[in-house]
C-alpha cells in the first residue's frame, strides 16, 4: 500500500519506518528541511534503539522516502498526521501544526483517501480536521483517529508488537483498508474499532492513568521517607497483586517527557471546557511538580544549606533511559535548582547531553556556564561533591562503588532512580540517599 506520514519526529519517523518494514511504500514528509536532508543523507536525527538500521534498510530497498513537499499525498491511500501538539501556556494542546498539515494534505488529496490523525489530540478534534480539509478540497476523504501508544526508548518494538491498535472512525469505507494495513501487527481482540471521539479520549485516559500511577507511588514514597517504611518492599507488596501490577509503579524524580506532562494538562483543560474539574488528574500533576524537587531538598539538607561552590555529578539527563529526549526531564529542574544556589555540574548522558544543553541554554542562559558536559560517567565523577543519578540507563546500574568513592570529593550518592543496593553502597562507606528507601536507622 502507498502511504504518506506527515511529521517526521519520534512518532512519525518510527511509524513511517515500521510501515515500510512491513511492506508498504512510505513517504515521510516534514517541513523541517534540515531534518529531511539529513535523513536523505543516511542520518537519523533521533536516538531510538533499532531505528537507524531499519531506516537504512528500507531506504535502500526503496520503500521509504523523505521529502519536504506533499506530492506523495495524491498517490497515497492513507495519510497519517503525526505532527507535534505541544502545550500552550494555559496547558491546552496547540493544534496549529495539525491544522496546517491538514490543510496542506487537503490541497494534495485524491478521492477516497483516509486521513489518519496519529498525533495526540483533544476529544472532538477530528471534526475540526474534517472542516479544515473540506475547506480546500471537494475530494472524498475520511478522517480517522489512531492514537499512538509507543514509548520512547522502545518505540520500534512497541510499534511492531503493540498491545493493541485503536482505530476511531465513522465512514464505513475505511474499515477494510485500515484492517489490511494493521493486520501484520495485530489480530483479533487487539484490534479495537470505536468512534473517533472514544479513540481521542482513550489516548488521554490511558496516559493520564499511567501518570497517576507514577504520582501515586511517588507520593507513597514520600510517606515512606517519613515513616521508615521502605518503598521498594512496599512496591513489591503491591505489584504482586494482579489487580495492580508492577508497571509504572517505580518511584523516581517525577515523570517527564513530551507526553505525560502535556497530556495531563490538556485533559485538565478539556475538563474545564465542560465545567468538570478533573480533581484526580490535577492532583497527579501537582504531586509530580513536588516530586521533581524531592531529591534537591535531600541534597540541600545534607550540605546544611551550603551548596555554593559545590560540584555535583549528574548520571543521566534524558527523561528516561534509552532516549535522547530531554523534554520536561526532571534533570532540567534539578540542574536549575542547584545552579541557582551557586553549585556547578559535571553531567554525563549516553545520548541526551546535546539536547539538554540546547534546552537549558534557552531556559536558563545565565546559569549555563556552571555546567561541564563530560565524555563518560567516570570523568563526570572527578572531584565532585556528590553523584546524583537522574536517569536509569543500563550503564549506570552496576558501577564500581570503590571507584565512585575514590573519585568523589565527598562520598555521597543521591539516587533518584533507586538503582543501587543500599547495603552495598553503605558498606563502601558512601552516604546514600534514595527515593522512599529505608537507608538507615529504625
Ligand atoms: P516531534 O516534535 O518529535 O515531531 C513533530 C514533527 O512534525 C517535527 O519534525 C516537525 O518539524 C513536524 N511538523 C510540524 N508541522 C508540520 C507540518 N505542517 N508539516 C510537516 N511536518 C510538520 O513530535 P513527536 O514526539 O513525534 O509527537 C507527535 C505527536 O505524537 C504528538 O501529538 C504527541 O503527543 C504524539 N505522541 C508522541 C509520543 C512520543 O513518545 N513522542 C507517543 C505517542 C504519541
CATH 2nd-level architecture of the largest domain: 3-Layer(aba) Sandwich
Are there runs of 5+ residues with pLDDT below 50, and where?
none
Number of strands: 14
- Named CATH topology of the largest domain: Rossmann fold
Q: Which ligands, by name, code or SMILES, are bound? A: nicotinamide-adenine-dinucleotide
Largest sheet: 6 strands, parallel
Instruction: Compute the CA-based radius of gyration.
Output: 23 Å
Residue share in helix: 40-55%
Order of helices and strands: EHEHHEEHEHEHEHEHHHHEHEHEEHEHE
Q: How would you describe the oligomerization state of the chains in this entry?
A: single chain
Structural class: alpha/beta
Structure explained in plain terms:
The protein has 442 residues and is α/β, with parallel strands linked by helices. The chain is 41% helix and 13% strand. It contains 15 helices and 14 strands. The protein has a 6-stranded parallel sheet with strand order 3-2-1-4-5-6, sandwiched between helices. The chain has a 6-stranded parallel sheet with strand order 11-10-9-12-13-14. Strands 7-8 form a two-stranded parallel ribbon. The chain binds nicotinamide-adenine-dinucleotide. Nicotinamide-adenine-dinucleotide binds at residues 6-12, 29-32, 35, 82-85, 97, 100-101, 119-120, 148, 150, 152, 258-259.
Give the secondary structure arrangement, pairings included.
Blueprint: E1 2-6, H1 10-21, E2 25-29, H2 33-40, H3 51-60, E3 64-67, E4 78-81, H4 96-106, E5 113-117, H5 125-134, E6 141-145, H6 155-160, E7 165-168, H7 174-182, E8 191-194, H8 196-227, H9 231-239, H10 260-273, H11 279-302, E9 311-315, H12 330-340, E10 344-348, H13 353-363, E11 371-373, E12 387-389, H14 401-407, E13 412-415, H15 422-427, E14 431-433
Parallel strand pairs: 1-2, 1-4, 2-3, 4-5, 5-6, 7-8, 9-10, 9-12, 10-11, 12-13, 13-14
Helix pairs in contact: 1-3, 4-5, 8-10, 8-11, 10-11, 11-12
The structure holds nicotinamide-adenine-dinucleotide.
Nicotinamide-adenine-dinucleotide binds at residues 6-12, 29-32, 35, 82-85, 97, 100-101, 119-120, 148, 150, 152, 258-259.
Amino acid at each position: 500500500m502507498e502511504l504518506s506520514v506527515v511529521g517526521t519526529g519520534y512518532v512519525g519517523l518510527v511509524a513511517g519506518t515500521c510501515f515500510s518494514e512491513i511492506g508498504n511504500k512510505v513517504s515521510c514528509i516534514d517541513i523541517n528541511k534540515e531534518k529531511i536532508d539529513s535523513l536523505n543523507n543516511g542520518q537519523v536525527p533521533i536516538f531510538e534503539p533499532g531505528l537507524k538500521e531499519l531506516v537504512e534498510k528500507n531506504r535502500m530497498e526503496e520503500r521509504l522516502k523523505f521529502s519536504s513537499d506533499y506530492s506523495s499525498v495524491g498517490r497515497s491511500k492513507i495519510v497519517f498526521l503525526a505532527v507535534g501538539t505541544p502545550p500552550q501556556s494555559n496547558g491546552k494542546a496547540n493544534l496549529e501544526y495539525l491544522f496546517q498539515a491538514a490543510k496542506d494534505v487537503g490541497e494534495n488529496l485524491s478521492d477516497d483517501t483516509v486521513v489518519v490523525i496519529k498525533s495526540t489530540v483533544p476529544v472532538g478534534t477530528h471534526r475540526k480536521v474534517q472542516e479544515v480539509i473540506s475547506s480546500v478540497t471537494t475530494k472524498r476523504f475520511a478522517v480517522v483517529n489512531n492514537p499512538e501508544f509507543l514509548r520512547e526508548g522502545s518505540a520500534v518494538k512497541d510499534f511492531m508488537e503493540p498491545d493493541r491498535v485503536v482505530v476511531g472512525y465513522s465512514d464505513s469505507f475505511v474499515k477494510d483498508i485500515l484492517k489490511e494495513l494493521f493486520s501484520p501487527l495485530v489480530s483479533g481482540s487487539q484490534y479495537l474499532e470505536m468512534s473517533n471521539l472514544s479513540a481521542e479520549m482513550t489516548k488521554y485516559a490511558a496516559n493520564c492513568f499511567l501518570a497517576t500511577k507514577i504520582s501515586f507511588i511517588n507520593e507513597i514514597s514520600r510517606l515512606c521517607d517519613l515513616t521508615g517504611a521502605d518503598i521498594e518492599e512496599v512496591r513489591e507488596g503491591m505489584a504482586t497483586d494482579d489487580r495492580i501490577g508492577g508497571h509504572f509503579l517505580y518511584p523516581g524524580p517525577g515523570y517527564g517527557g513530551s507526553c505525560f506532562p502535556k497530556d495531563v494538562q490538556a485533559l485538565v483543560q478539556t475538563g474545564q471546557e465542560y465545567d468538570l474539574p478533573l480533581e484526580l488528574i490535577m492532583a497527579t500533576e501537582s504531586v509530580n511538580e513536588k516530586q521533581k524537587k524531592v531529591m534537591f531538598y535531600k541534597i540541600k539538607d545534607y550540605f546544611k544549606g551550603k551548596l555554593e561552590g559545590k560540584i555535583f555529578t549528574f548520571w543521566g539527563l534524558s527523561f528516561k533511559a534509552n532516549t535522547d529526549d530531554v523534554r520536561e526531564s526532571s534533570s532540567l529542574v534539578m540542574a536549575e535548582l542547584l545552579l541557582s544556589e551557586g553549585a556547578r555540574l559535571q553531567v554525563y548522558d549516553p545520548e541526551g547531553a546535546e539536547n539538554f544543553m540546547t534546552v537549558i541554554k534557552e531556559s536558563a542562559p545565565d546559569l549555563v556556564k556552571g555546567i561541564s558536559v563530560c565524555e563518560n560517567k567516570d570523568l563526570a565523577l572527578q572531584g565532585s561533591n556528590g553523584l546524583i543519578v537522574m536517569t536509569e540507563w543500563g550503564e549506570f546500574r552496576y558501577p564500581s562503588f570503590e571507584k565512585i568513592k575514590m573519585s568523589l570529593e565527598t562520598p555521597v550518592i543521591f539516587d533518584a532512580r533507586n538503582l543501587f543496593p543500599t547495603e552495598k553502597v553503605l558498606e563502601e562507606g558512601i552516604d546514600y540517599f534514595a527515593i522512599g528507601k529505608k537507608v538507615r536507622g529504625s
